[in-house]
Design a protein that fits this description.
Number of helices: 10
Largest sheet: none
Structural class: mainly alpha
CATH class of the largest domain: Mainly Alpha
Order of helices and strands: HHHHHHHHHH
Length: 258
C-alpha cells in the first residue's frame, strides 16, 4: 500500500474519531436535537466530511451510543478479576447503571424507529450480553451470586435500577443489587462497589414516592422512568419508538396486541 493511501486512511480515521467525540459531547450538552453543522464545527471538519462518514444523523447517533456501549464492555473486560469474580460482576452492574443516562435520548433519536434492527448497535448489544454472561457465570461459580439467577433477569434488574437511580433512589438500587448475592457476601458486598450516583438515599419528595405511593413505573422496553398519570391507564412505554418495538415483538411472537 502506498504512503499517500496510508495517509488518507489515517486522516479518515482521525476525522471519524473527532466527529464521534464532538457528537458525544454535543449530545450530552444539547441533546439529540443538536445539528450536524454544530457537530462538524466542534470536530473541526466540514459538513461534507461528516456526511461521508455518517450519511444520516440517526447513523451518527447510533455510532455514538454503540461506542459508549463498547467502552462499557472494554472496561468490564479489563476489570475481570479471577480472584474476585463477584466484585468484578457487581462493578459491571453499577457501571452499567451509572452509564445508562443516555437511554432516553436514544429513544428520542430513533423515534421514527424505521431502521430497526440497527446492525451497529445490535452488534454492541451482543458484545455487552456476552460480557454480562461471562461475569455472571464466573460470579456464580465462585459462590458470590445466587445460582438461580439468569442473565435476562440481571438485565431486567439493570433496567429497573437505572430508572430508580435517575430518580435518586440510590439506596433502593443497592438493596436490589444486594438481593443477587448469596449469604457469602450479603453482609457488606454491594456497598463496597457503589458508584457516586448510587450513593444517594431516595428523597421524601421522590416522584414515585410521594405520599408513600408506589415506586415509579418504567418503560418496558428501555427502562426510562415514566411520568405518573393522574387519569386513564398507567403508561407502559416512554414514546412511540418503544411502543412500536413492543408491538413488533408481539407480532413476532404471534401474540395479540394489547
Amino acid at each position: 500500500m502506498s504512503a499517500p493511501a496510508d495517509s488518507l486512511r489515517a486522516d479518515a480515521r482521525r476525522n471519524r474519531t473527532a466527529i464521534l467525540l464532538a457528537a458525544r459531547r454535543a449530545v450530552a450538552a444539547e441533546g439529540t436535537s443538536v445539528s450536524l453543522a454544530l457537530i462538524a464545527r466542534a470536530a473541526g471538519v466540514g459538513a461534507g466530511t461528516v456526511h461521508r462518514h455518517f450519511p444520516t444523523k440517526e447513523g451518527l447517533l447510533e455510532a455514538v451510543f454503540a461506542v459508549q456501549l463498547d467502552e462499557l464492555v472494554a472496561r468490564a473486560n479489563r476489570r475481570r478479576d479471577f480472584t474476585d469474580p463477584g466484585g468484578a460482576f457487581f462493578t459491571l452492574l453499577t457501571d452499567s447503571i451509572e452509564s445508562a443516562r443516555g437511554r432516553a435520548q436514544l429513544c428520542d433519536a430513533f423515534q421514527s424507529d424505521s431502521g430497526w434492527p440497527r446492525r451497529l448497535l445490535t452488534a454492541s448489544v451482543l458484545r455487552y450480553d456476552k460480557a454480562l454472561c461471562d461475569h455472571l457465570d464466573a460470579a456464580q461459580r465462585s459462590g458470590d451470586v445466587r445460582s438461580d439467577v439468569a442473565a435476562e433477569e440481571v438485565k431486567a434488574l439493570i433496567i429497573g435500577c437505572t430508572a430508580m437511580q435517575v430518580s435518586g433512589g440510590g439506596r433502593i438500587v443497592r438493596l436490589a443489587l444486594e438481593g443477587l448475592r448469596t449469604g457469602k457476601g450479603a453482609a457488606d458486598g454491594v456497598t463496597k462497589v457503589k458508584g457516586a450516583a448510587l450513593n444517594r438515599d431516595i428523597p421524601a419528595t421522590h416522584p414515585g414516592n410521594r405520599d408513600g405511593g408506589e415506586p415509579p413505573r418504567c418503560c418496558r422496553i428501555c427502562g426510562v422512568a415514566l411520568e405518573r398519570r393522574t387519569t386513564g391507564r398507567p403508561a407502559r412505554y416512554c414514546g412511540a419508538a418503544c411502543r412500536k418495538r413492543a408491538q413488533r415483538g408481539r407480532d413476532r411472537d404471534g401474540s395479540e396486541a394489547v
